[in-house]
Amino acid sequence: MGKNSERTKMSDTVVPNDKIRVRMAPSPTGFLHIGGARTALFNWLFAKHHNGQFILRIDDTDVARSTDESMHEIYTALKWLGLEWDEGGDKGGPYAPYLQSERKTIYEKYVTQLLESGNAYYCYCSTEELEAIRKEARSNKSTRSYDGRCRHLSSEATEQYMSEGRKPTVRIKMPDKPIRVDDIILGSRNIDPATLEDEVIVRSNGMPNYNLTSIIDDAEMQITHVIRGTEHLNNTPKQIAIANVLGLNLPQFAHIPLVLDDSGRKLSKRHHGDLVAVNRYREQGYLPEAMLNFVARLGWSYDDKQEIFSVAELIEKFDLDRVGKSGSVFDIKKLEWLNAHYINELDVSARTDAVMSFWEQEGLVDSSTKRDWLEKIVEAVGERLTTFQDIIPQTRYFFTDDFEYESKAVKKWWGGSDEKKEKTCEILTNLGQVLQEVAEFDIETVESAIWKYTDENDIKRVAAMQAMRIALTGTSFGPSLFDIVVLLGRDEVLKRIQRAMAYLSHK
RNA sequence: GCCGCUAUCGUCUAGGGGUUAGGACGGAUGGUUCUCAGCCAUCAAACCGGGGUUCGAAUCCCCGUAGCGGUACCA
Fold first, then answer.
1. How far is CA A332 from the centre of its chain?
2. What ipTM, to 2 d.p.?
3. Strand B closer than 7 Å to the CB of A39?
4. In this structure, what CATH number is given to the domain that contains residue A169?
5. With contact defined as beta carbons under 8 Å apart, do A476 and A413 qualify?
6. Which of A92, A104, A272, A488 has the fewest beta carbons closer than 10 A?
């Protein structure tokens, strides 16, 4: 497999009897966005493909920003996508609890160990002091922004700080030997210890930090592979250093490239708002299959022929060795194409089910609306839906005649001049007459009657049809007009033709 | 500033010393039809730059450049 052979080898180093365990570890500080969904998907696919386990851990050590609401939104999004987890979240499991905020005593044990072995120390620097240190380091072109000055605090200094009431943080002492980082996707490298600084591992409020909790939990929860975004790449050596000192087993790492916006920046809640929220796509009438298929192809490919992958195929074919190294732009056009594809694979009944809530939301249908009729509407709409919410603009006129005539359409097909309008009125009148007299109001009869009229009177089919289409729907495009006519019914059609003629003669 | 990662059509990507550099989305054109969508056909569109290595480089190496990520008592 060419360039990826090295990676393949690395992922194959997993002992086959070892059950693969991966995790998704979101921080509940907002909704799940496209990038997070992809991280979840890659983890989930990797687990499913290798018959392993997918764990959902909630990294909520940031008390100030974490919310319960966010956590539940993440659950909803993940469940909608069908990325069910084997352990964790609201589900529990053998390594419970899975909320880091509930695992404090576990971390405390390790922190004590670190402190006692001299691998961590208290740091009394204030935020302001830290900032000054950083500024200084920057102007000195230093490779780190904290100089480790509290490593060797005298007991007098410590007492002094304590008497001032300062609450210390705990910092990890970084090693002075290079750290080797092996990454399944990115390969191996050695990190110069001069670039590693003594990270804060416990906040002054007593809450431990990500770099500590993450690697501890990965070990405690027997995680074999950490698959996460490359924004964590620089955290990895720090976490490895901590694990080494603690004697923890290391997972294998696989950093997946970022999902970017169309100007090449990382997708984030902060900059892109809920434009990138997974739940929003659900609300807009996207199908989870489309979303999954789309997101899977961001950074992963199978070969040069296949774009459409069912979930089962994804599970069968996905592996880390075909994940690329460079970021990928989120292209909504492609998502739309995929969504249309998956919608069109649904039968009429399933499509009707899917579309129902949108109609209901708009107050267009209620329990008395006939299912049979609705299905026929969906059938008439055919392959015109990109998302389910498209059903509203495309079918509103079936339920109400309270619509405006589109001015562009009016101008083009009803006529800009009085003369043309008169002609249109004449056609409409005759069409109304034809429809009035037609014996059976079904598609075949209506169609042949109309064609008979146009052809015998030397009227262009398009002109007649478009004139009537606007009268019936207000727009110049949509399903087959015969479908519309029959679905609307004779009375409604005649009524709308009357209304159109009134409009034409008054203007 | 410092550290790191990355680099094939506009976008997602295949390929990986010798290819007409392939596919898909999007775009354009034509066909089909009562319109639109769809479908079918066709077209335009790419190896970041410079040096090496080599008979031959988009592919390997080096150096640039650019973009991005990180640089928090966020994750």
1. 11
2. 0.95
3. no
4. 3.90.800.10
5. yes
6. A92
